[in-house]
TrEMBL record:
The lineage of its organism: Bacteria, Bacillati, Actinomycetota, Actinomycetes, Micrococcales. The keyword Cell inner membrane applies. Its main location: membrane. The chain crosses the membrane at residues 203-226, 238-266, 286-308, 320-349, 381-400, 412-441, 453-469. It is found in: Cell membrane. It comes from the Bacteria. One of its GO terms (cellular component) is plasma membrane. Belongs to the binding-protein-dependent transport system permease family. LivHM subfamily. One of its GO terms (molecular function) is L-phenylalanine transmembrane transporter activity. It is a multi-pass membrane protein. This is ABC-type transporter, integral membrane subunit.
Length: 481
């Protein structure tokens, strides 16, 4: 029996070899099915959690139908690179080794002949992978897939089922966003209205925290500071650097951010505004200086964080429903912090000697100086407060809405001016009232008009206020002549 074993083993090997040779043509004749099966297994492998970040890719035609068998490469942090093939059933999702930015590149040679990549369309798109969520990259191909002004490659962030839009737009955390499509054709429900009302309160509180400083500067100096939006964006940028890149705890990073931005206010007043005031520089020239400062700060922020969208927190936000409104937990905490700060500012202005002196300088600087108040000292304090609260508002905005970019200040500056004009220029409490109203209008208008136009509704209100009540809701009429 022992002598018979080698021949039996030899025969078994020959049989297996013959079966492999016979099956080779069958296996080689169905590469598409094999690739599709492999891609489908990849598509279901990545399940985001607190330690896993995923990147999903898809290719769509003009009718939003998925195109299978297209190769895409995901490359990024740590030299990671992996090529995946799309399927017709679902987006292909893969796990990436660490959080960060990844580049998704499409191979045009693998597209079907009847659905080529549109002329001039990008072949790659960047996404930001975060633990607990799936960053999605989509390419649109084929005739009519995209107009020249419409991007053919888009990137969104899925945080537990929601999809993020513009990083500077509300609900970038994917919670409470309005459905896609033509807003005028959707049947509204009270639940949607209430949800947008809650989002409007959040928008208004954060806008108010930033706008109060803008109004205090105008009240004490008469200057409309066009660089105030960049102080807002600087708070978000420094928060990203200290909390995300340097790994500082949120509270410590926030305190360092606020302190540095407060120093920028002190430096601005000492190095720019106080010398110009002593020279008697007219307000119009001072406004031009603020525009130049705004441009300089914009590019400084771009130099610090780059030209893309960034996230202050590495993890995706967790939704929390209170009173029927679903927002991220960070959004609710930011609203509480903003409300506490606004109440603190109100107490400071009405109950402290410095606050009362600030109101006196705002009402009549010459008379305040005659009573022993130092206007320069009060203005210096106002600049420090304004830049500090703008930084805090920008930091909480970046945390609440999930992402931001270097143009955040420019995008929100006109809304700040609309808020302070509506509430009453030079009145701290007017900034609060105007900001809440602007926030509600912006978010509620999203139910009936396209999301891209919602900021325009706030600017329409600004025009109407200037036409019919230029002093604002809480402002006082001024006699001219």
């Amino acid at each position: 029996m022992t002598a018979d074993r080698p021949p039996i083993a030899s025969v078994a090997r020959r049989i297996l070899a013959a079966l492999a040779i016979a099956a080779a043509p069958v296996l080689l004749s169905a590469p598409a099915a094999t690739a599709s099966a492999d891609a489908q297994s990849v598509a279901t492998d990545c399940q985001p959690d607190d330690t896993t970040a995923c990147v999903a890719v898809m290719v769509l035609d003009a009718e939003n139908e998925r195109i299978p068998d297209v190769d895409l490469t995901v490359a990024g942090a740590g030299g990671f690179s992996e090529t995946v093939t799309t399927t017709a059933d679902a987006p292909v999702s893969i796990a990436v080794p660490e959080v960060g930015r990844y580049t998704v590149t499409i191979d045009p040679a693998t597209l079907p002949a009847d659905t080529p990549l549109p002329e001039g369309a990008p072949t790659e798109v960047e996404v930001t992978a975060q633990t607990g969520g799936t960053a999605r990259a989509a390419f649109r191909v084929g005739a009519g897939a995209a107009a020249p002004s419409t991007p053919t490659a888009t990137a969104t962030q899925d945080a537990g089922g929601g999809t993020a839009g513009d990083p500077a737009a509300p609900d970038a955390e994917g919670v409470g966003a309005a459905p896609e499509g033509d807003a005028s054709k959707r049947a509204l429900t009270w639940g949607q209205v209430w949800q947008q009302f809650g989002s409007g309160i959040r928008f208004g509180l954060l806008l108010a925290l930033a706008s109060i400083g803008l109004n205090l500067i105008f009240g004490t100096t008469g200057l409309s500071n066009f660089a105030h939006g960049e102080q807002f964006a600087l708070g978000a940028a420094l928060g990203f650097i200290f909390i995300n890149q340097m790994g500082m705890p949120i509270v410590a990073g926030a305190l360092v951010t606020i302190a540095l931005c407060a120093l920028t206010g002190l430096a601005q007043d000492a190095g720019i505004w106080r010398p110009l005031r002593r020279r008697g520089t007219p307000i119009m020239q001072l406004m031009i200086v603020t525009i130049g400062l705004s441009i300089a700060l914009q590019y400084l922020i771009q130099l610090l964080i780059g030209g893309g969208s960034e996230r202050i927190l590495q993890t995706n936000p967790r939704p929390l429903t209170l009173l029927g409104v679903t927002l991220s937990t960070a959004s609710w905490l930011s609203m509480v912090v903003a409300l506490v700060c606004i109440i603190g500012i109100a107490w400071f202005l009405t109950r402290t000697r410095i606050g009362q002196a600030t109101r006196a300088v705002s009402d009549n600087p010459a008379l305040a100086a005659a009573t022993g108040i130092d206007p320069d000292k009060i203005v210096r304090i106002v600049w420090i407060m304004a830049t500090s609260f703008a930084a805090l508002a920008g930091l909480m905005w970046g945390i609440s809405y999930g992402a931001f970019n270097w143009q955040l200040g420019v995008q929100l500056l006109l809304l700040m001016f609309a808020a302070v004009t509506l509430g009453g220029l030079g009145t701290a409490f007017g900034a609060l009232v105007g900001s809440i109203l602007i926030g509600l209008v912006v978010e509620l208008s999203n139910l009936v008009i396209q999301s891209d136009l919602r900021y325009a509704s706030a600017l329409v209100i600004l025009i109407l206020v200037l036409l019919f009540r230029p002093q604002g809701i809480l402002g006082r009429r001024e006699r001219i002549g």
